[in-house]
Design goal:
binds S-adenosylmethionine; alpha/beta; seven-stranded mixed beta sheet
Length: 259
């Protein structure tokens, strides 16, 4: 069966036989590329990754402005979305990831002096090591959960949504920023050529990990169409689910309210 047609129950890096196996391979892969992650993200996205995270923060700004709001940025990696959220308001932002190497970089960055309106102070976000499928948060304890380019990497999407739902308060918001396959047409075909032929070569060469940058387009191809993700979020107990498409339809921001 071609990889794109496989049922998208959860990610399956090449060779993974089970959920546990998939999870372990994903963690190892991100741990290996952590030293080059930020540089390659900015380079390979032509700096668009910064724009996507800033737009995500703007979308949820009313929550961020509340000093009492508790926010979790799941699969936070080196922390860039957590920082964008923390800079946008007064909410308490925590980033969580299961790759220790990613978190070390996030923590180091949080201690460096930030540029912009809060220059001179540390970026106010905290980080913890946790698996998205077993979060160390109480039921109904969070106002907002975000995740940028992380959800696609979960070994079980339904379990991931259930766990996010568990920790969100009723009325809390989930925002999932993810890559998606653009529709057919010149722009979409150009994007696919770039992602499948160019990006793996540059990413593989500069990171020394070709598999990680082959995994990226393969996992996007296996992932949900934006409408399918709307349905899955609805079935998992989220209401008012909607999405916006950006950058030739290659990136989607889904939002939903915990019912
Ligand atoms: C593509 S990176 C995205 C990082 C960051 N959110 C960003 O915007 O750059 C995906 C991250 O998800 C993390 N991740 C994947 N599966 C996870 C899981 N089950 N639990 C926690 N983190 C996970 C990886 O370790 C990695 O840091």
């Amino acid at each position: 069966m071609p990889e794109a047609a496989a049922p998208a129950k959860g990610t399956r890096p090449e060779g993974a036989q089970s959920e546990a196996d998939a999870s372990r391979k994903v963690r190892e892969m991100f741990t290996e590329i952590a030293p080059h992650y930020d540089f390659l993200n900015h380079l390979l996205s032509f700096e668009q990754d910064r724009v996507w995270r800033a737009r995500t923060a703007r979308r949820v700004r009313p929550i961020l402005l509340r000093r009492d709001a508790r926010v979790l940025d799941l699969c936070c990696g080196t922390g860039d979305l957590a920082f964008a959220l923390a800079r946008s308001g007064a909410a308490q932002v925590t980033g969580a990831d299961f790759s220790h190497a990613m978190l070390v970089r996030a923590t180091t960055k949080s201690k460096t002096r930030s540029r912009g309106p809060k220059a001179g102070s540390a970026i106010p976000a905290t980080f913890l090591e946790a698996d998205a499928l077993r979060l160390p948060f109480a039921d109904s304890s969070l106002d907002l959960v975000t995740t940028a380019f992380g959800f696609r990497n979960l070994a079980n999407y339904e379990s991931g949504l259930q766990e996010i739902r568990r920790v969100l308060k009723r009325g809390g918001t989930l925002a999932i920023l993810e890559f998606t396959e653009p529709p057919p047409g010149l722009a979409g075909d150009l994007y696919r050529w770039y992602c499948r032929k160019v990006l793996p070569k540059i990413g593989g060469f500069l990171s020394g990990n070709p598999n990680a940058y082959k995994y990226l387009p393969a996992s996007v191809a296996r992932f949900f169409h934006p409408d399918e993700l709307v349905s899955l979020m609805g079935e998992a107990g989220f209401a008012s689910v909607e999405y916006q498409l950006w950058t030739l339809g290659s990136v989607a921001l889904h939002t939903g309210i915990r019912a």
